[in-house]
Amino acid sequence: MTGSPSADPAPVKNVVFIGGSFVAISAVMKMRTAPLPPGYRIVVVEPHNHAHYMFGFPRAAVISGFERELFVPYDNLFATPETGVVVHAKAISITRTEVKLDRAVEGFGDSITFDYMVYCTGARHPSPGNLNDSHTKAEGIAVLKSYQMRIANAKKIVIAGAGAVGLELAAEIKEHYPEKTVTIVHSRDRYMMGYKMGIHSKSYGILKELGVHQILGDRLIIPDSGVEDGVLCTLRTKLGKEIECDLLIPCTGMTPNSDVLATLSPAVINPANNLVRIKQTLQIDDDAYPNIFAGGDVVDSADIKTGLSAFWHADTIVQVNKPFMKPSMWLVFDLTRIGLSRTSSR
Questions:
Q1: Cβ-Cβ contacts under 8 Å for 106 (sequence gap 6 or more)
Q2: pLDDT at 3 over 90
Q3: Looking at the 3D structure of the chain, how many domains does it have?
Q4: Same domain? 265 vs 306
Q5: For 119-150, what is each residue's pLDDT tens digit?
Q6: pLDDT (average), residues 179-194
Q7: What are the pLDDT digits (tens) for 99-108?
């Protein structure tokens, strides 16, 4: 735990953030200038001991020298333990007023009571775009250095999936190792479907100039045995293309971390995508729990899932999650106007 709660004769009311994500960090920083009323404290529950600056991971998976800078300690998030603490544990279940932890933590035990909660656990992505299971800085650096070595030793690299991570990874590899063969395979007929066509055109042009082989509108058939690093094999696509490969890097799929909230309200999870249904106030879409909010990549909203959207979610949550505000005073926000919406970005 970063910081320790001080003894206080009056009961402390907790505003708990599940997940030390950009939503939580941004909300905490905003609350420095608009603090909670006396008697309230922020508690961030996060299993990682450092915040992950994941936007730099694709480059750090290729180029060495700055891995350490991408893992930021939570130590200075709060000025005093009275205003907030970071609890390094994993939330495993939630009740109406309590978060159950996977371990006992000093000052709390194995559970934390709350008056308000913000669920901002994000989503799992394949590494190296996201290092979900690297709980320490050393573990995260080791994963990135492992990718650096694997990429340096490979000659024919195939990237499956061309979201933001896949596109940047392909460009970083080919720019740093122009002698290597890099192929990117994407199931859609253009890149970054949620954005304007210009984003696709620019991305396609950069990769073409670098010499990346681009296959759009097709999918890789990955053998059950996978692809062994350093062993040349031939991969096939569903449309019959053949690609030589000695290193396969999957960059497809996003799995929302909504399972813990489902222990409280299964109905709030959209079965079509496992995202959390929310109201325009960013309260979860269950009238039984007006004190529980959600934001970031885990929510089922119209905006595109970016860091910018997470910051806007945090701004909304700060404004409507003040404990001294009555429900009738909660503001309503149009989520299509927060961050980059799927309409405005086209």
A1: 1, 4
A2: no
A3: 2
A4: yes
A5: 999 999 899 999 988 999 999 999 999 999 99
A6: 94
A7: 999 999 999 9
Residue 223 lies in a domain: yes
**Among candidate residues 126, 217, 121, the one with its CA nearest the CA of residue 164:** 126
CA distance 145 to 65: 10
Q: Which residues contact 270 (CB under 8 A, 6 or more apart)?
A: 276, 277, 300
Q: Could you tell me whether strands 13-18 and 116-119 are parallel, antiparallel, or unpaired per DSSP bridges?
A: parallel
> Which CATH number is 27's domain given?
3.50.50.60
Q: In what order do the strands lie in the sheet with 247-250?
A: 213-216, 181-186, 156-160, 247-250
Q: pLDDT confidence of 334, banded at 50, 70, 90?
A: very low
**Residue (of 44, 17, 254) closest to 120 by Cα position:** 17
Extract the tokens encoding 81: 């333990």
Question: Helices 22-31 and 307-320: crossing angle, nearest 10°?
Answer: 50
Burial of 116 (0-12, 13-18, 19+ CB in 10 A): buried
Q: Whole-model pTM?
A: 0.86
Query: 305 or 227: which carries more pLDDT confidence?
Result: 227
Q: Residue 67: how many CB atoms within 10 A of its CB? A: 21
SS3 at position 27: helix
Do 241 and 176 fall within a single domain? Answer: yes
- Please tell me the distance from the alpha carbon of residue 338 to that of residue 226, in angstroms, as a whole number: 40
Do 330 and 228 belong together in one domain? Answer: no
pLDDT in tens, 296-311: 999 998 877 777 777 7
Residue whose C-alpha is closest to residue 284's, from 263, 306, 254, 309: 263
Q: Under a CB-based contact definition with an 8 Å cutoff, are residues 253 and 281 in contact?
A: no
Instruction: Give 187's DSSP letter.
Output: S
Closest CA to 52 of 132, 111, 120, 112: 132
Last residue of a domain, one of 250, 281, 313: 250
- Cα separation, 185 vs 201, in Å, equals 16
